[in-house]
Write a structure and sequence with these properties.
homodimer; mainly alpha
């Protein structure tokens, strides 16, 4: 009992929090109560409105069914209900006349017509493009059966049809007026905000993934929720997941938004809501790359920290610039602002990606494990070790690998900074190969001689090593692919901003004036 | 007019095709018609059932609303409707007594109670965990208002409540009996088939992506539907997309399946339907890797055909084995069979991945572009060209790159086949470097000398070249990551097969007997 009481208490607290975090829900509930009260007042009407009171249940039913959270949803349901009732009413009246003509067979005709209409309406409802009108088909079916059935009893076909329609119109009217006039909640605005939120989420996720990667964040144990793509509060994961997962929500919101009249900042007939989903789809296409980047963090095969350190600054810059582009686009959508015609939003991120790519280019020896190269083990035959590449040596001496790598770091970064040809062509390889040569001398046994005996085990660890270095290459090229996909996103944004007549950016305006 | 007629004709043809491709839809529609007819027969009842006929509309309404495609959905809606009606009925009766006690204030009390109940029910409906009971809240609200309103008129509170409940029970009973006894359609079975289908789709997509990649399939222009993740009939894309996109459908099906009693092959109380979604989630986790593989095909940066050719056989084998594992798991689920305890379903694919990884290891010089290595351009200083790695040379002579690469292919593959240490340590590097040296001699100008002048343009093309080689590394390591994720999928499958008491595989059974 105490348990149940605690559970209830917790539930009440959570319900309060829900209202606090989204006050619209409280408002909506109050509006619903108000609409019900207004319709219920009908019953208190005395003569000559007795008639309305008698059928008041239809108005009540309509309010309960039609009164939806957003105005678009209310309109769409109201339309469905009106269309279903009207068409079914007309058809039922016609069929009733036919059935009466059938004389003794009237009951049979009625029953058969109910079966046939029931069959056809249900079948058409299942047709894929009829999905938005599903509710309309239900109302159609109900109305048809109701009029046939109650008309047969009372012989008041026309009366039943008309009163039903009037009461439904009344209920729908009350719903609509209450819903629109008091604190309206627009599906279009929800869609707009959802898309903006997704931009921010993906940006956070991207930055988080890149920063996590260079900082060598690792999962001790990957949460099983991530492994089965369920909601989880991992910050890197939830960001892109929300963007990937919001597709069906967006579709629903677009379905409602198209019903809404021009309002607020969306002062345009046939506002291009579909373009919002296109932008969101392009964002999703980018989010899948962030997901793949996160996959590199989740993976068991991890690049060694020293190697990541080498590309630390470049990776991080691409991540930062990429997130900046996403946030800027998100803000542009939020403020409904076009891109300036001269401004190239992608300039910085493209540059950062190119710098990263060049660095990769110069240092791609770090990404592979040249020890096993079938074309590249000449020292064993020819003894000319000093001209080989550093990485070849490093991998023959796993113990010293990280040391030498770190040791050579400061050297090379200083070369990068002063990028003049003169310093660039100093044979950096020979420097580090000398220092390594010294270390190699101090080794007790030449490792190469016993390689053949324990080749199986060693092979495996070498394979792993090479895979782990390639993992860095993968992360980098996924990041660069992400940057490439931004182009597509910017195009989708431009299309939206044109179609929706976003305003010119303020800075741009000033320059032109 | 002719247009409209053609459109109608087309629509009818498509509707027929829908019925042909899924006859269950035809059956369901006929069942719906039958249920409506059965309920409508109530009206033809003469005395002493006049009373039932008067309220028959409630039964009709119930059938129209509750009769759903699958039995689980029908049961869940029926339960919601029953619970909503009963609890609202009880509450309304209590409130009516209170209101009558209020004497003159009765109308006010009624109105206020409608507002308060309307507010609370609507607010709770918005609470996230209450989503499955959304319909129940609606019915609750409708019933409460209806009883309060019509009871006030007629003073027949109890009568209204009871008759309404009886008629709703009648409608729900008819729906349920017709839906269950005639050609039942189970949501659980749909879920089962959907998961199996997703396995097959991802397998096809994987195989298609790998085969397409080694065959250098390219998109002239990437369909914009893919760029915005919308449905498209591209075979590589639609396969994994269906698996990625079916999450909400699966959730809905699970929501219904848990309502279904044990039936057919699912003869178990509390059948672990949730485990199906877990397996499906793990499959989705794999499908994201297939998506990333497809991303390599979509990307603008493409690895050169000759390099892909080198890993042709290994890549294709991993793709084939990976798809085989997926298909086998899919078939196991379809047949509801466990994995044999000795059988390691991943053996082949792991082996294939390892072979690929080793080959990558041996030939990783193909994945990078050593020309720009800051540590590795000693020939300019020291002139000792003959000991450099082939790839360094290749990239200084772009024209000969593909030739030399292809030329050295047969040599090396024969080394791979005979894997004895003796042949392995033949200095392969010197062979190919000799043959390249000959070619280099025939070049008119030494390219290296003019490198400094036109460095900017050349830099860019070099950068592109290195990116394009890395793209192959990315594809490979994504493929290997896909294989790694299969482990997780197999585990999810094992959990499902345990919980759902799948049968032992037949071969295994025989061996034990």
């Amino acid at each position: 009992l105490a348990n149940g009481y605690n559970g209830l208490q917790e539930f009440v607290v959570k319900a309060f929090q829900m209202g606090k975090s989204d006050p619209r829900k409280v408002v909506f509930s109050a509006k619903m109560g108000l609409a019900l009260v207004l319709v219920s007042l009908l019953i208190f009407l005395k003569e000559p409105f007795e008639y309305v009171a008698r059928y008041s249940v239809w108005a009540l039913l309509t309010v309960v069914v039609v009164f939806e959270f957003s105005i678009g949803a209310t309109l769409s349901k109201g339309f469905n209900r009106a269309l279903g009732t009207l068409s079914a009413g007309g058809l039922a009246l016609g069929m009733a006349v036919l059935a009466m003509l059938a004389g003794d067979w009237e009951e049979l005709v009625t029953i058969i017509s109910i079966f046939v209409i029931g069959f056809i309406a249900t079948y058409l409802k299942l047709y894929p493009t009829m999905k938005p009108y599903e509710y309309g088909f239900r109302v159609f079916l109900l109305t048809y059966c109701f009029i046939m059935v109650s008309g047969y009893k009372t012989r008041e076909f026309v009366n039943t049809t008309v009163s039903r329609f009037v009461l439904i119109a009344l209920g729908a009217g009350v719903s609509l007026i209450v819903n629109t006039c008091i604190y309206p909640i627009w599906a279009g605005e929800d869609l707009h905000n959802l898309v903006v939120k997704n931009f921010m989420n993906v940006a956070d996720s991207l930055e988080g993934c890149v920063n996590g990667y260079v900082r060598c964040v690792e999962y001790k144990r990957v949460p099983s929720k991530i492994l089965t793509f369920q909601a989880s509060d991992d910050p890197l994961y939830s960001g892109y997941r929300s963007a990937v997962d919001s597709a069906s929500q967006e579709d629903a919101l677009v379905g409602f938004a198209v019903w809404e009249p021009p309002h607020g900042p969306y002062r345009m007939l046939a506002y291009p809501w579909k373009s919002y989903t296109k932008v969101s789809g392009a964002l999703r296409h980018c989010a899948f790359m962030v997901m793949a980047l996160h996959g590199c963090i989740l993976s068991e095969i991890q690049a060694p920290a020293e190697k990541r350190q080498v590309f630390h600054a470049e990776l991080q810059r691409v991540g930062k610039e990429g997130a900046k582009v996403l946030r800027e686009l998100g803000n542009k959508i939020k403020r409904m602002e076009k891109l300036g015609s001269e401004e190239d939003i992608l300039y910085e991120v493209d540059e950062a990606a190119e710098i990263l790519q060049r660095k990769i280019d110069r240092k791609s020896y770090l990404l592979v494990n040249s020890q096993s190269w079938e074309i590249g083990t000449p020292q064993k035959e020819q003894g000319q070790t000093q001209h080989l590449l550093t990485s070849t040596r490093e991998s023959t001496m796993p113990e010293f690998k990280s040391l030498s790598d770190l040791g050579q770091l400061p050297n090379f970064t200083s070369f990068d900074a002063g990028n003049s040809p003169a310093t660039h062509f100093i044979p950096a390889g020979s420097v580090s190969s000398e220092s390594i040569f010294n270390k190699q001398v101090s080794l007790p046994t030449p490792l190469t001689s016993i390689a053949d005996e324990e080749s199986s085990n060693e092979d495996e660890s070498k394979t792993y090593e090479s895979a782990s270095a390639l993992s860095l290459a993968t992360f980098t090229s996924l990041l660069i692919e992400f940057v490439a996909r931004l182009q597509n996103l910017v195009e989708a944004f431009k299309e939206l901003s044109e179609k929706a007549h976003f305003k010119e950016p303020i800075g741009h305006y000033v320059r032109e004036a």
